[in-house]
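Fold this sequence, please.
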Amino acid sequence: MPGVIDRYRELLPVDEATPVVSLGEGSTPLLPAPRLSERLGIDLYLQWEGANPTGSFKDRGMTVAISKALEEGARAVICASTGNSAASAAAYATRAGLVPVVLQPAGAVASGKVAQALALGARVLTVRGSFDEALAAARELSDRGTHVLVNSLNPFRLEGQKTAAFEIVEELGGAPDVLALPYGGGGNLCAYARGFDEAVGDEAPRIVAGEAAERATTVASAIRITDPVHASAVADAMRATGGSIVSLTDEAILRAWRALALEEGLFCEPASAAGLAALEEHPVERGVRVVCVVTGHGLKDPETAARLSATPVTVDADPDAIAQAAA
């Protein structure tokens, strides 16, 4: 399957000299959500970004960032990460033959993401401090010229991530009325805004973004970012689209997480449900067409899933006992 660079080469900052580093990212499913649509009174679709190669939307941007780093002669890349960027950077850098260095805030990253980054060859360093402090250190090393920063501050990341908006327009034959998604650092939100602006201009959807009310401690670890680096650009996108940011409790995020699993069969990590939670907490007009971006796979955070789900029941290997237990 062609990746996003091959699909959208003329719309991305690449040329014939750019070595394409791809794992077949993009082309993710846009799934109708009939039960949630009926309950919320809207025409809802779920863009399932957990279907990307490393299980999150980050791969769309990382293919461009790593390809450009390789083109420019880099030998190592670095990112600060709450988990998904780490796994994606590790995969694409390793595929390119570059050294991936990951700075993770102590105690703030789900185990599945740590294991993924380590298995893919990243040099994972746990920083005694917050994500914001880890990012500051990564930026300083990048400024020294020893590593290429591949966080969303790298402009090539957002260029790759904007392709998600292109795919929505292609699938639906136009833009939805509303786009709902999580808001952590804000890079992905800005990428969608850019993509819709390029694809449909003034017909871009209204953006509804869900952020954790308690950013520093939220159960939604992927958006556990206290100081969003793209906050100013996010504010611009909200003004341009008439959008809104919805502040969410962990309880609201987890209700939406369960709803995606139990009503639509989609197992995502908690942060990925923030877009749906925003729609539930701040309903939009009935009958409108909405795309909700589900950003990462549930296996990214298996411990939270296990803690919040029912435990298996032990039974004898007896049909009657099994039927009784399953009733």
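The longest strand covers residues 99-105. The first helix runs from residue 4 to 7.
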